[in-house]
Amino acid sequence: MSLRLHQDFTLTETDFGAVLLHRRRGTYWQLNPSGALIVTSLLGGSDADGAVQRLVEQYDVDPGQARRDVDSLVADMRAAGALR
Questions:
Q1: I need a labelling partner for 21 at 20 to 30 A (CA). Which of 27, 40, 51, 84 fits?
Q2: For residue 58, what pLDDT is reported?
Q3: By C-alpha distance, which of 23, 25, 19, 20 is closest to 8?
Q4: pLDDT tens per residue, range 72-81
Q5: Domains in the chain, ordered, with CATH?
Q6: What is the 3-state secondary structure (H, E, C) of the chain?
Q7: Is 22 exposed, middle or buried (0-12, 13-18, 19+ CB in 10 A)?
Q8: What is the pLDDT of residues 48-69, one digit of tens each?
Q9: How far apart are CA 44 and CA 25, in angstroms?
C-alpha cells in the first residue's frame, strides 16, 4: 500500500511531528510524531505492515493498536482527499 499525496497537498516534518497542508484551501492538519511516522513510512514506499512494524519498534505499542492507528489515519487522509 505505497501511497502518494494528492498534488494539492504538502507534508512538512516539524520538531513535533508533521504538518499536512492543502495548498489551495490553506487548511492544514497537525500530525503527532506517531502520525508523522505512519505517513512518512507509507509515502516512503512501505506498506501498511511496514508502517505497523515501525510504530511497534519506535513506540512499543501493541501490534493490534498500531494496525488500527495506521488504518484509521489512512482512511482519514483518503476522506480528506490527501491521497491518490
A1: 51
A2: 95
A3: 23
A4: 999 999 999 9
A5: 9-79 (1.10.10)
A6: CCCCECCCEEEEEECCEEEEEECCCCEEEEECHHHHHHHHHHHCCCCHHHHHHHHHHHHCCCHHHHHHHHHHHHHHHHHCCCEC
A7: middle
A8: 999 999 999 999 899 999 999 9
A9: 25
